[in-house]
């Protein structure tokens, strides 16, 4: 009797221990910090400084600030010393460790022939997209040009040629899923670059950076300031200058992380109750890609309802862009009719509509085969349910 009590006690302790472990080891938030260039790839050059060293200095400072002050975050560097890595290797590493956020750190420069070379100044933060100006394209070309250091880059990079303007069209409709988070984070970094590091604000911009395109997570690339301007070069190579730049990115990260935690918690809190004993038809199994689980809802029996009728319905979202496309855009890959709603500064494109989850699953499959990042969203009273 006593033995069996002991045994049960040990078992329950063991169980509690394992349970405790699983709580403690719940996946950390993984922040991937990518110091641009390195090794034989020096990046842009100043009078004395090399871009690769500035990038690494700021990356390590940022990583230390996060590791020392933000619990529950695992910092992963693509490089923490002066070594050469290809763009693809950087993205591969970020994906392998299942990064939750990717920050690539670079230092800007302009052409040697430019008359503004010694006066141009300011920090900018970039997300993936198609460039809206030649100037933006030039930044992406310069940062992608490291690809030329590789033998056989044409096959490794799917025919992408960093110097060919036509090559950049592939970036326009990539990474729909993370665009909004990336742009919001980029805006916060810019805000901090100005207020904390006293930089000239060159804004949030879009261009086709290979390293951003191939990371499957929200991702930004910062251009700290201009290494070709001797004043900025001095700032960027100084200990205090690098600390300020790291501090600015750190502040934006802290905000990002707390928003992320709040969303995670509200997601947990809104899990649907099990309603197996209710007489209503059993709710369809929750599809894997529904953004937020919704409570079970009584069916009305009507296939279509007006948006403002109090009915819950589902749509498949497959694209979000900062601008509106025409209804017959070829970018919809033949999906028709496509609907669009606006949220914040983004236009979000949806296909299909159904009041029940089984119904939307069919349409989801169709869209998913064309847009692999598609997911199901829920509306009530004509409004997206968050
Ligand atoms: Zn660079």
Topology:
Elements: H1 2-24, E1 29-35, H2 51-69, E2 73-77, H3 87-96, E3 101-108, E4 123-128, H4 134-144, H5 153-156, H6 176-195, E5 201-207, H7 210-213, E6 219-226, H8 230-237, H9 239-269, E7 312-321, E8 338-343, E9 346-354, H10 357-370, E10 375-380, E11 383-384
Parallel strand pairs: 1-2, 1-3, 3-6, 4-5
Antiparallel strand pairs: 4-6, 7-9, 7-10, 8-9, 10-11
The structure holds zinc ion.
General description of the model:
- The structure is a single chain.
- The chain is of the alpha/beta class.
- It folds into 2 domains: 26-264, Zn-dependent exopeptidases (Aminopeptidase), CATH 3.40.630.40; 289-385, 2-Layer Sandwich (Alpha-Beta Plaits), CATH 3.30.70.
- It has 10 helices and 11 strands.
- Strands 2-1-3-6-4-5 form a 6-stranded mixed β-sheet, with helices on both faces. Strands 8-9-7-10-11 form a 5-stranded antiparallel β-sheet.
- The protein is globular.
- The model is unreliable at 16-25 and 271-308 (pLDDT under 50).
Give the neighbour order of strands across the main sheet: 2-1-3-6-4-5
Report the major sheet: 6 strands, mixed
Q: State the CATH architecture of the largest domain.
A: 3-Layer(aba) Sandwich
- In DSSP terms, counting alpha (H) and pi (I) runs of 4 or more, how many helices? 10
Mean pLDDT: 81
Output the radius of gyration.
Answer: 24 Å
Secondary-structure-based class equals: alpha/beta
CATH class of the largest domain: Alpha Beta
* Low-confidence blocks of residues: 16-25, 271-308
Number of strands: 11
């Amino acid at each position: 009797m006593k033995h069996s009590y002991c045994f049960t006690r040990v078992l329950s302790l063991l169980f509690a221990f394992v349970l405790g472990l699983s709580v403690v080891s719940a996946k950390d938030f993984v922040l991937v910090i990518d110091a641009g260039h390195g090794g034989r790839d020096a990046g842009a050059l100043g009078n004395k400084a090399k871009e690769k060293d500035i990038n690494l200095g700021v990356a390590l400072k940022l990583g230390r600030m996060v590791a020392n002050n933000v619990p529950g975050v695992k910092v992963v560097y693509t490089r923490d010393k002066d070594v050469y890595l290809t763009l693809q290797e950087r993205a591969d590493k970020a994906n392998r460790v299942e990064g939750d956020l990717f920050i690539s750190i670079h230092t800007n420069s302009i052409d040697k022939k430019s008359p503004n070379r010694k006066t141009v100044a300011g920090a900018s933060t970039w997300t993936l997209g198609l460039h809206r100006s030649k100037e933006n394209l030039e930044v992406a070309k310069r940062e992608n040009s490291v690809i030329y250091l590789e033998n056989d880059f044409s096959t490794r990079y799917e025919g992408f040629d960093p110097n060919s303007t036509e090559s950049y069209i592939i970036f326009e409709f990539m990474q729909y899923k993370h665009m909004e988070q990336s742009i919001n984070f980029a805006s916060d970094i810019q805000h901090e670059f100005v207020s904390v590091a006293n930089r000239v604000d060159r804004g949030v911009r879009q261009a086709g950076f290979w390293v951003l395109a191939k990371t499957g997570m929200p991702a930004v690339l910062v251009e700290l300031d201009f290494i070709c301007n001797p004043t900025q070069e001095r700032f960027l190579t100084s200990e205090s200058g690098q600390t300020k730049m790291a501090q600015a990115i750190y502040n934006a990260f802290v905000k990002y992380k707390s928003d992320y935690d709040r969303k995670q918690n509200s997601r947990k809190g809104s899990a649907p109750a099990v309603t197996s004993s209710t007489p209503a038809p059993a709710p369809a199994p929750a599809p894997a890609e529904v953004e937020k689980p919704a409570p079970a809802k009584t069916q009305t029996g009507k296939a279509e309802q007006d948006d403002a009728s109090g009915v819950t319905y589902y749509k498949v979202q497959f694209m979000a862009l900062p601008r509106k496309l025409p209804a017959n855009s070829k970018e919809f890959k033949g999906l028709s009719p496509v609907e669009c709603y606006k949220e914040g500064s983004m236009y979000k494109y949806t296909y299909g509509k159904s009041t029940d989850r089984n119904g939307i699953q069919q349409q989801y499959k169709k869209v998913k085969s064309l847009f692999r990042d598609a997911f199901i969203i829920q509306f009530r009273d004509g409004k997206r349910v968050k």
